[in-house]
Structures are given as structure tokens and as C-alpha cells.
Automatic annotation (TrEMBL):
Protein name according to UniProt: TauD/TfdA-like domain-containing protein
Domain of life: Eukaryota
Domain TauD/TfdA-like, residue spans: 126-409
One Gene Ontology molecular-function label: oxidoreductase activity
Signal peptide positions (record): 1-20
Presence of keyword Oxidoreductase: yes
Entry-linked InterPro entries: AlphaKG_dependent_hydroxylases, TauD-like_sf, TauD/TfdA-like
Record key words, sorted: Oxidoreductase, Signal
Protein source organism: Discostella pseudostelligera
Length: 456
């Protein structure tokens, strides 16, 4: 993932410009932001994990070697659009769903390469394709460990082609925040920016209420040079089974909504000016994101705050293929009460929040703490090293990333429904990134390298 909600920075860029048109000066917004800072912030503690495999110290290729693409391969830049989210969340018996989910095996399945496996190269994945695809559905994720093939961009592509996976765009590709590591190989950069290394990315499915990738392959080309940077994965079925039934029933019945950005407008401005800002942001910014967003003032109780909020969604969904009920939402990543209590490198304007959909009140601390407890009990904090790939069923397993030091290079390819044309749809990428998209990527590179001074 990433900065958690990729819409955040882009909304900030245009929305800040929009509000500047209506306000006396940029300093007034700075003053407003400063006045809204929490005077006594909660203690920030690094989250736990249930399983923490040891590092093995394996080495990989140099950056000059691992970034090379096989130019004899066709260009994949015209890949499929990310498919629409498959929702099947009505009429779920929560207690029965928990019993069913509890039967699932531990996620992820670890598949360690032998010398013979490595000697086969891509043929290993072609020969074992059917079993590996079946195991992906059974376990939710597969950690391919110690494979030399995937130590380069070219080899990583050979792997997913041998498995018959069909690449697609990131669900938020249109935001411009999804930067390619190798566009012609359908490979996006993961969150490697030095400016975000002190930011903990909580558990999430790569999903919005509107679009969700079917699968993903996260690859490590270079582990963090000065430590940290574990990749996090947890089974949505295990989290569902673990949650307190009362809390789970409450969240399922009330549903949730997620805000993806904040814009603090001086609350003393006249209503017609606020409405003008809201309308301008809605018209100028929302179309840049393939999300259903509603611009709402003061949802979290902060005077003058304008938030972009997704539509209501269920925190439980049935898996599109297996029908298994799973915990399918991004509350562990987006809930403000959790982000305020762990390492976080996002400025106030980029802080997300999770609301009960029926009242638009933020989740209370007790519910947030239960989501934290159940989620982190089932996190495996992977010690991914060069050539390691985590293949993820994006409807079943949630992922995230711990903080890191130094330089790091991970990447990801998203995949559509290769075995179901109706679910995949018929949309292919037809528009290149425009100047707006490129400006957003550049803005992310300008962010400070140390966020400690920005923590609220």
C-alpha cells in the first residue's frame, strides 16, 4: 500500500488550492491546522504481531541489475482496469460465519525453494500452477521464500506469467499516487519513499467500496538497508473468527464509512463560502478518483473540517469464489484512534477516519482496540528478502508494512479475474497519466524525509 489512502495527498493538493481562493491567506489555514492539534497526544507504540519469522540475511542483485526489464517481452502498460468490488454481504449469520472462518489453516502458506526448484526457474511455477492456485484459495496467501527467479523485474514477471495471472491497474491508479517501478511489466513501486519510512501501514485489503484487485504479488528486490520494513499479512478469516461476537455484530449491523482526507477551513467563514469550497473540491477533485466520495463538513466534530467520505460498506464480505465469510475492510489501517497511537507519518490533512455508517460518528475507542487486538494477533510479520514473493488473495488476506530505516525496494503487481470474464469486465487502460497525476507523484517525493516533527 502505500500511504494508506492514496486519495489523501491528491485531495490535499487540489483542495488546498481551492480553499486558498476563498481565504485571506495561506497562513490562516496553517493557523487553523495548528489550533486543531491535540495538546496531549496518546503514546505511540509499535503494533504487535503474532508470528515474527527470523531474517536469514540473503543477498540479491544490485539495483542496476534487478530493475532491468526483458525488452523482448510485450509491453503490458495497456493492462486491464481494476475490477469492480464483488460485494456479497447481506444476510450473514455472524456467529455461524465465525465458526466457519475458524476452520481455515494458518495464513500464509510458506513455500521454500529447494536447489532443484531454483534450477527449474519459471518452469517450477508452470508445472505447479494448479496446485499453487488452489493453495492460494485455501490459505489466503503464499510466501515464496528463497526463490532466485524473482530477484529481478524480468524474473518476477516470468513467475506470474507462469501462474497464468493477468495484471490490472491499482484500484486507485487514477489518483496519480501509484508510481510504477516498471510500467511495461505492470509492476508498481511499494512504499519505499524515505519520507514514509517512519510511517506504519496498518492492515488493509487493496480495495475501495468500488474497486478491488483479485490477487497481488508483492516482491522484495532489496530489504531495508538499516533495519525494519517487515511486510505484514493477516488472514481475514482468522480475524473474523477472533473478534468479539458482540463487537462484530455491532459493526456488521451498523456498517462503516471511511473518510480519506481532511481539509480544515476556518470555521468563521460564511456558509456560502464554505459551500463554494465544498462544491469546488467536489467538482475539481472527486472525478480524479475512481471512488464514490461525498464531501461532508465536520463529521469528526472538528469545526470547519471538510472530509471526503466513502459510501457505506459492510465490514464482512463473502469471498467471491469460495463463499467464505471474511473480515474485509480497512479499519485497522484507517481508524484515527489507532493511527494516533502508533508510528504515523501522515500530516493532519491526510489523517483518515472510520465512522459508523448509521450515525456518522467515529468508531469508539473500545471497538478500535478490539479490532487492533484481533487483527494483530494474526499478523505474520514477514522477513522478506531478495527474491521473496508474497502472493495474496486480496479478498481473503489483509496486508500492511512496518516502519523501516535506510533504503528499501519492494514492488507489487495487481491481478484481475483471469478465469471469469464477467467479473473482470471489458475495461482496459486507455489514458496515459496526465500532468495532474505526475504532479502528485512529484509532490510525494518532496515530502520531508523525517516525519517526527509532523506527528500530532
Amino acid at each position: 500500500m502505500k500511504i494508506t489512502s492514496a486519495a489523501t495527498a491528491a485531495l490535499l493538493l487540489l483542495a488546498s488550492s481551492a480553499s486558498a481562493f476563498f481565504t485571506p491567506s495561506s497562513s490562516s489555514i496553517v493557523t487553523q491546522l495548528a489550533s486543531s492539534t491535540i495538546s496531549s497526544p496518546p503514546e505511540r507504540i509499535a503494533p504487535d504481531a503474532g508470528w515474527v519469522p527470523e531474517w536469514e540475511g540473503r543477498t540479491g542483485l544490485s539495483p542496476e541489475e534487478f530493475v532491468k526489464s526483458d525488452m523482448s517481452k510485450p509491453d503490458l502498460s495497456g493492462m486491464w482496469e481494476c475490477p469492480l468490488t464483488r460485494w456479497n454481504s447481506e444476510g450473514i449469520d455472524v456467529k455461524a460465519a465465525q465458526k466457519e472462518a475458524a476452520k481455515m489453516p494458518h495464513c500464509p502458506l510458506e513455500v521454500r525453494a529447494t536447489p532443484a526448484d531454483n534450477a527449474m526457474g519459471a518452469e517450477y511455477f508452470a508445472k505447479n500452477r494448479d496446485k499453487l492456485r488452489a493453495d492460494l484459495l485455501k490459505y489466503g496467501a503464499i510466501w515464496f521464500r528463497g526463490f532466485t527467479l524473482m530477484q529481478s523485474v524480468a524474473g518476477n514477471r516470468l513467475m506470474h506469467e507462469a501462474l497464468g495471472l493477468d495484471p490490472c491497474l491499482d484500484p486507485l491508479h487514477s489518483s496519480g499516487l501509484r508510481k510504477f517501478a516498471s510500467e511495461r511489466d505492470a509492476l508498481y513501486e511499494e512504499v519505499n519513499k524515505p519520507s514514509l519510512r517512519g510511517h506504519y501501514i496498518g492492515l488493509h485489503n487493496e480495495s475501495t467500496a468500488k474497486r478491488t484487485a483479485a490477487y497481488a504479488a508483492f516482491v522484495c528486490f532489496q530489504r531495508a538497508t538499516e533495519g525494519g520494513g517487515r511486510f505484514l499479512v493477516a488472514d481475514g478469516a482468522a480475524i473474523l473468527a477472533e473478534l468479539n461476537p458482540v463487537t462484530l455484530e455491532k459493526l456488521y449491523n451498523r456498517k462503516i464509512r471511511i473518510s480519506v482526507s481532511n481539509l480544515d477551513i476556518p470555521p468563521a467563514l460564511p456558509s456560502f463560502v464554505k459551500d463554494g469550497i465544498k462544491g469546488l473540491v467536489d467538482v475539481a477533485v472527486a472525478p480524479k478518483f475512481d471512488m464514490d466520495l461525498e464531501m461532508i463538513y465536520e463529521s469528526d466534530g472538528k469545526p470547519g473540517r471538510l472530509q471526503a467520505v466513502e459510501t457505506a460498506e459492510s465490514p464482512i464480505n463473502r469471498h467471491p469464489v469460495t463463499g467464505l465469510p471474511v473480515w474485509f475492510n480497512n479499519a485497522h489501517n484507517h481508524a484515527r484512534k489507532l493511527r494516533d497511537r502508533r508510528p504515523c507519518g501522515v500530516p493532519e490533512v491526510g489523517m483518515t477516519e472510520v465512522f459508523y455508517a448509521d450515525t456518522m460518528e467515529p468508531l469508539d475507542l473500545e471497538d478500535c482496540q478490539e479490532i487492533k487486538r484481533a487483527s494483530e494477533k494474526h499478523i505474520t510479520a514477514l522477513s522478506m528478502e531478495p527474491g521473496d514473493v508474497l502472493l495474496v488473495d486480496n479478498y481473503r488476506a489483509l496486508h500492511g508494512r512496518d516502519v523501516f530505516q535506510g533504503d528499501r525496494f519492494h514492488a507489487v503487481t495487481w491481478f484481475t479475474w483471469d478465469q471469469n470474464e464477467e467479473w473482470r469486465g471489458n475495461e482496459r487502460r486507455i489514458v496515459e497519466k496526465n500532468a495532474f497525476n505526475q504532479a502528485i507523484n512529484q509532490m510525494m517525493d518532496w515530502l520531508p524525509k523525517d516525519f517526527e516533527s509532523n506527528q500530532s
